[in-house]
Design a protein that fits this description.
The complex is a heterodimer of chains A (about 30) and B (about 475). Chain A is mainly alpha-helical and about 30 residues long. Chain A is built from one helix and no strands. A two-stranded antiparallel ribbon of chain B has the order 1-2. Chain B is globular, with a radius of gyration of 22 Å. Classes of the chains: A mainly alpha (about 30), B mainly alpha (about 475).
Chain lengths: ~30, ~475
């Protein structure tokens, strides 16, 4: 459980954050 | 709090980036753009914005505190929220996205059940949004005060009116764009903090696992069964389709984009709750047992992160607050103009847009006053949450899945559910330990059934949404 929550989940959340940043850039570019 | 110039610079950088993003998204020409971004939001932005909205202080600082005190107990209890988000994504959000002429949940209710239900839905939505916004103002202002030492009133005004400024100019598009940035910000920084804790942990992983089991087991035994049921149920239903979530479903580019956004947000909820509750468990290794659970999140940040990054963590906490607050401010403003004012005095597009901007500032002002001078604001919000599901969900869900809807059943269900739930909690004090939300839902179902039998006027919106 600690490996899952302490090691794997943080990397999944990091990936979500990075993907969202790219999504935001596209969203702003399409809005302009 | 041990803060130096680098930390303050981190907070300042965050505010500058938000201000720049607000500037980029400031142009809004129509009410449809302000309220539902012309139904053009892609799945990734629905996902990021939903996550940024539901991850408030409770789902971050609060869950770390619970993790410190009761291990993974609240992680399991709150899984209902993830189940609810996934279920909404599978069955309800696509139906809402199909209603292209609706701007608010009140609009949807009004189309199914007529004008009275439309106004009632608007009033409940507005109350919830103002209460939520006030709680966020109080927490965000308190965090900024702790970080900068400025007077509380100045901090509450800074956080609330900066949020109101970009929400007022850019509407839901600015809210969603800043949400995505704020989401990226905290979903990178807080997991990095957990990874540092994992690798720098002075104890073995086996010892931390044993501590997690011990805390979870003790926490489980300390709660009576009915209390566990009530907490799990409030996570499952309390926030279902509250106005900011429903507005994101209405703003989605298509049914598919809406479905994908909600499903991803539900899955992320599991990941996120695992992270923040585990941070609390690591608190025992780094901070010892003497610390108050509510202080664990910030104290752990101070212990693990270097100066500058700690400032960014404080900015991330403010981001968590602002990203929830902007969503409810926008949803509340649109509900006030569309569901309440618009029902009594029809407004053209320009007037509705101007009205929504003024309403955003009005909500910010009321939230600021309530945050400063209403000591029981959190209790008030909890009552709003217990009223939400009985008052709106029953009629909304039955209506969306029915071929025809009877007008009387809509407002009778809302009135019965809302009143019984409110009285059950405030006057009767939840007799027999039965949660107010359960009593309210039963009353709403009875009200709905009675209305169905006695009512005559009906609509067929369900067919359009099904």
């Amino acid at each position: 459980m600690i490996y899952l929550f302490g090691l794997i989940c943080p990397f999944l959340a990091l990936a979500s954050g990075v993907v969202s940043l790219f999504g935001l850039v596209r969203f702003i570019a399409n809005s302009e | 709090m041990d803060i130096n110039t680098l930390d303050l610079a981190g907070i300042a950088v965050y505010f500058c980036i938000i201000a720049y993003l607000a500037y980029l998204t400031r142009k809004t020409k129509t009410f449809s753009e302000f309220s539902v971004a012309k139904h053009s939001v892609p799945a990734i932005m629905i996902f990021a914005s939903l996550c940024a909205t539901y991850v408030g202080p409770g789902f971050s600082v609060g869950f770390t505190s619970k993790g410190f005190a009761t291990g993974h107990l609240f992680f399991f209890l709150a899984l209902g929220f993830a189940v609810q988000t996934v279920s909404v994504g599978l069955w309800v959000a696509p139906k809402l996205s199909r209603l292209r002429d609706c701007h608010t949940l009140g609009d949807v209710m009004g189309k199914m059940y007529g004008g009275t239900t439309h106004v009632l839905a608007g009033v409940v939505s507005l109350g919830l949004c103002i209460g939520f916004s006030a709680v966020m103002a109080k927490i965000g202002g308190g965090m900024l005060q702790a970080a900068t030492g400025l007077p509380l009133l100045a901090c509450v005004i800074l956080v609330t009116f900066l949020t109101a400024l970009y929400t007022c100019t850019g509407g839901i598009r600015a809210s969603i764009a800043t949400d995505a940035l704020q989401f990226s910000f905290f979903s990178i920084l807080i997991p990095v903090m957990l990874l540092i804790a994992f690798f720098k942990n002075p104890e073995s992983t086996a010892a931390v696992s044993a501590k997690a089991c011990e805390l979870t087991s003790a926490g489980w035994k300390s709660l009576p069964g009915i209390k566990v049921f009530a907490i799990a149920l409030s996570f499952l239903l309390g926030e279902t389709l509250i106005p900011p979530y429903a507005n994101r479903a209405l703003a989605a580019k298509s049914e598919g984009e809406s479905r994908k956004g909600f499903l991803a947000a539900g899955v992320f909820c599991v990941i996120w709750l695992g992270i923040v509750s585990t941070l609390g468990i690591f608190g025992h290794s780094f901070l010892g047992e003497g610390i108050a659970p509510d202080n664990v999140f910030i104290a752990l940040g101070g212990k693990l992160l270097p100066h500058g990054m700690f400032g960014l963590l404080l900015a991330a906490v403010i981001a968590i607050v602002m990203s929830s607050q902007d969503s409810v401010m926008n949803a509340g403003a649109v509900a006030l103009v569309r569901d309440i004012v618009g029902r009594f005095k029809p407004l053209d597009d320009a007037a509705a847009l101007t009205g929504s901007r003024i309403a955003t500032i009005f909500i910010a002002a009321v939230a600021t006053v309530a945050a400063m001078y209403a000591p029981s604001i959190i209790e008030g919000l909890l009552i709003c949450y217990s009223i939400w599901a009985p008052a709106l969900l029953v009629a909304l869900l039955i209506g969306l899945f029915s071929r025809t809807t009877v007008h009387l059943s809509g407002w009778l269900s809302m009135a019965a559910g809302g009143l019984v739930s409110g009285l059950w909690q405030t006057v009767l004090k939840e007799p027999g330990g039965i949660p107010a939300i359960v009593a309210g839902i039963v009353a709403a179902l009875i009200g709905y059934g009675v209305g169905r039998i006695l009512g005559s006027e009906s609509s067929t919106l369900g067919e359009a949404a099904s």
